[in-house]
Write a structure and sequence with these properties.
The structure is a homodimer of 497-residue chains.
Chain A (H helix, E strand, L loop, with lengths): L1 H30 L6 H20 L1 H8 L11 H16 L4 H24 L2 H22 L5 H9 L5 H25 L14 H15 L6 E5 L5 E3 L5 E5 L7 H18 L16 H15 L3 H14 L1 H4 L4 H8 L13 H20 L7 H13 L25 H20 L3 H6 L4 H10 L9 H9 L6 H14 L1
Parallel strand pairs in A: 1-3
Antiparallel strand pairs in A: 2-3
Helix pairs in contact in A: 1-2, 1-3, 5-6, 6-7, 8-15, 8-21, 9-10, 10-11, 11-17, 12-14, 15-16, 15-17, 17-21
């Protein structure tokens, strides 16, 4: 058996290497590649992905899995978890027939192009037939993957293993009850211009330098990372020792690059702190999108938009950007970075209203999947929900139903993980602080070692060894719970507005 | 048969994609990767190379080759050449047993590390036992690969298919007779300091900008390329539509980055101008190291160090770098960039003495291979030849026998391709000018389209479709010939000294 285990490890390491190579091809495509390289790069990516997929779904994987009796292994050992994780993914990957996957690739590629055009022209009708095909295929996908209660479960599980539709709905109900009234109240107050200090002369190079200083204090290891520019910021990695972030700078607006950097650094800290033993195994990555997002949102928002954080960093920031900040005191700046302003675009949303954008999308996805909503009626349903939850209505579909790339990529069930991340960020942070109350004081001194240390010990180091539910319960003593997050939002924004 | 051909193409395209992915992993390693990523990157590279090698040497390749009757195809068709090229490489690749290749990897990795240390400490004795193993293995490799006349033929053919030891010796004899007396005469004259204008305040960003302007005029397509920094300059590509160069800048010395850029651009022009039909096939790359080097050396030296070139560019250069160049006229600058100064280090050698460095190495490689020279006696033999050909003697082994990486990498037979490149550069350039005498006038106007066009038509577009000998004969009407190159050197440097 130990020989089969060794062979399985080697087999999976090969697949992991291929996936990391594909990751580098993508990173390069988005940050370095000359434009002319696009079509050849697509071929290279397709080849690597195909070989990796063939290796993983091939009979060798099953044969090696079958040769190992997982019951002989301690249930919490890395080995036992590697095997159950691999078997789950193997079984899942063999549920979608090759023809379905091929069709999916074609439909996504075409729909992606059409979506870009449609958004540019704000013309939903162009995109509608493609989205209809996609909804049909998503329904088929759910049936192929299988589920216990609701077809949406199957989709959620692609991104957040173990999450059920009922769980997600209950969570959003709690959020809705706890935050919509506050969001609508703030919307009714109108814009008081408190975010003005964030706009002004913010030279790109200085933004980059300041952001880097913060990430160093957060604990991002630049010897195992780097930062580049890209149109859409992201974090990617090729093993725990090469974890890269990207940023988009606006020389007249501080917020996107600064908080974008802190956000991506949160993702990077997860990957850099996975224990080395899991490198080159399928467990050597964050356990789910939601748990990943808990880290990015924590370092971006709970830490990066807190008073203690800015008590330490604001003097330096003010000295770095005297022109826009000379007459802005700490409190005024703190209020600026925590401006709540109901907006049409999800990626620009503040902490309080962000989840309402997600809620809206999840409800629409479920209605489409259940056939209760027709694709043709989607723009109208979108606009109605925007009015209900945020008190505003898009002027056109480009800033409404066409704004996100996800649906053209057939990524139904993805959106909720953003909110799961928010919910978990507070649950985890509160637990860390309860255990180590000195975290706040450290923050005032620009130190984050205790916080990162607790996260490393309880979350990060384990990679995908534990399922999200199990990991959260181990770390906090209870399942995912929206209450701390609702309380955090009410306290923070109740005071600010 | 056409189905087998289609399958073979697809099979080879997959392998090509893998090799290009490995190429990107290497490029990234040398230009972008954070230091911490080194060991994981090594694993990724090993995995991709192993899969590519297994696919190519596997039975599928042979089965598909055997299913195609090459005699049915027009002998000069891309298809016929693809098949004969593939069969040759297949047969060659299966001649080295897996154990030999594995041992080779281990010995190279270890010897590479030891060589670095040995060079740093100028301690040949440290490196000696490793080089002894390497010489033994190189001898074994030659026997495994097979040869008609001389074991060195087998090694030369790894880099320059069709080249024989006798041919190489005859070529170097001609060069020796034609250039050693001139080189020794110049050495005896002593250094008159004529290269002084190249040293001074040359800000890096301005060097980069000026170099870029030249490459644009050369015809390097920046939409399908980019330039980065690396310790050792190189050119790499991932298909004809993504061909990248790297450069090393010295802010106090113009020559290395400028001529390095022109050199790598020559390599890049080759790859960018291969006809698109050969993309993703094994023919879609330069046909040999020597022919590749003919392009880099032509654009670097014959063009880039010529009077007509500088008649066009010098005004701009002087305006860009007024401080070091204000009192330097065109003729003085032209003489500076063509300084001949016998030096100890090959990579810093001028046009005239460069080949003598190569000659020395080739003679030593042959003597080692034949057993006429013992590794222990190598430093002494090296120093003696330096005195004979260049009139100087290294003060230590770091600037002598330990200076090159090649032997630690088991790359015997590689060095001669540098000189082949020089020889071919003049033979090809002269042919182009004989056909299109306007090339010189165009150069004076900063135009290079006719020269590049002739090269594209006769050399570049064909990729590896024709063997080097055949390609040169088709392009120039005769086999490789050192006479034009000797004449070029004698004329140019006879006038200058």
């Amino acid at each position: 058996m130990s020989q089969a285990l060794e062979q399985l490890r080697e087999h999976l390491a090969t697949i992991r290497d291929l996936n990391h190579a594909a990751g580098l091809l993508s990173w390069d495509q988005r940050t370095q590649m000359p434009r002319g390289g696009a079509s050849t790069r697509a071929e290279q990516l397709a080849t690597i992905s195909r070989i990796s997929h063939e290796l993983f779904t091939g009979e060798k994987t099953l044969k090696l899995l079958d040769a190992i009796n997982v019951a002989d292994l301690p249930p919490d050992s890395d080995e036992a978890r590697l095997i159950s994780h691999t078997r789950y993914n193997y079984e899942r990957s063999t549920k979608l027939p090759a023809e379905f996957i091929a069709k999916q690739s074609r439909v996504r590629a075409l729909a992606g192009n059409v979506w870009e055009d449609a958004r540019a022209k704000s013309d939903f009708a162009m995109f509608q037939p493609h989205l209809e095909t996609i909804v049909d295929m998503v329904r088929e996908q759910a049936e192929l993957l299988g589920y216990d209660e609701h077809p949406y479960d199957a989709l959620l599980n692609s991104y957040e293993r173990g999450l059920t539709t009922n769980q997600a709905i209950a969570l959003f109900d709690e959020l809705k009850a706890g935050t919509v009234p506050l969001a609508l109240k703030i919307a009714a107050m109108g814009d008081d211009g408190r975010d003005a200090p964030l706009h002004g002369n913010y030279p790109e190079a200085l933004q980059e330098e300041f952001g880097k200083k913060v990430t160093v204090r957060y604990g991002y290891d630049w010897n195992r990372g780097r930062q580049d520019r890209s149109t859409h910021p992201f974090c990617t990695n090729f093993g725990r020792d090469d974890v890269r972030i990207t940023t988009r700078f606006n020389p007249n607006w501080l917020a996107p690059a600064l908080f974008g950097t802190l956000h991506e650094t949160g993702h990077a800290l997860y990957e850099q702190n996975i224990k080395p033993e899991l490198n080159r195994t399928p467990l050597g990555r964050g356990t789910s999108l939601g748990v990943h997002e808990s880290q990015s949102r924590m370092w971006e928002n709970i830490v990066g938009r807190s008073r203690p954080f800015w008590e330490f960093f604001y003097g330096d920031l003010q000295a770095t950007f005297p022109e826009p900040l000379v007459n802005v005191d700490l409190e005024k700046f703190y209020r600026a970075v925590n401006t709540v302003k109901p907006s049409l675009i999800r990626v620009e949303a503040d902490e309080l209203t962000y989840n309402l954008h997600i809620l809206l999308r999840m409800e629409l996805e479920i209605a489409l999947l259940e056939g209760k909503l027709k694709v043709a009626d989607l723009p109208e349903a979108w606009n109605a929900k925007m009015q209900t939850y945020l008190g505003i209505t898009p002027a056109n579909d480009a800033e409404g139903v066409l704004q996100d790339i996800h649906w053209s990529g057939m990524m139904f069930g993805y959106f909720p993980t953003y909110t799961i991340g928010n919910v978990l960020s507070v649950q985890l942070f509160d637990t860390a602080v309860a255990k180590h109350p000195e975290i706040w004081d450290e923050m005032r001194r620009g130190e984050f070692g205790t916080l990162l240390g607790w996260m490393r010990e309880n979350i990060l180091q384990h990679g995908s060894k534990f399922l999200p539910n199990e990991l959260i319960k181990r770390a906090t003593g209870r399942p995912m719970d929206a209450a701390p997050y609702v309380k955090y939002l009410q306290t923070k924004f109740g005071e600010l507005y």
